[in-house]
Amino acid sequence: METARVKIGSGAVISMDNLKDPARRQLFEAIAQLQGLAPNSWPTDLVVRLSGPEPLYLLKFTPDLRAFIQPTDSGEIEILDLAHRKTLEMFRSQKPNGNAKE
Predict the structure, then answer these.
(1) pLDDT averaged over consecutive 10-residue blocks of the chain (102 residues)?
(2) pLDDT of residue 1
């Protein structure tokens, strides 16, 4: 398998430093699968495009971990941040004011 061309964004440095080896390997393997493909042909079971003006994607690379990624002009994929699935679900379940939805 070809080595992924990856840029680690400043917001992901601490998370990447704390990522255990098996999960780190899964992340880079998942990104390697995306390389060379146009983002609109990335597998939808692994990658979800988030709404907004910039092309921002959520990559599922383990059952519990997600990476916010973005393609760069130079053909790399930049890792912007990492998050636990449960953390994202908690934010999604809240109203804009931070209170839990009823």
Answers:
(1) 76 92 95 93 95 92 96 92 90 71 60
(2) 45
Nearest residue to 89 (alpha-carbon basis) of 54, 60, 69, 55? 60
The structure tokens listed for 39 are 């983002």
- Of 42, 85, 43, 45, which is closest to residue 63 (Cα–Cα)? 85
Token pair for residue 3?
A: 């080595």
The pTM score is 0.84
Tokens of 57: 């994607």
- What are 86's strand-pairing partners? none
52/39 Cα distance (integer angstroms): 15
Spatial distance between the Cα atoms of 59 and 82, rounded to a whole number of angstroms: 9
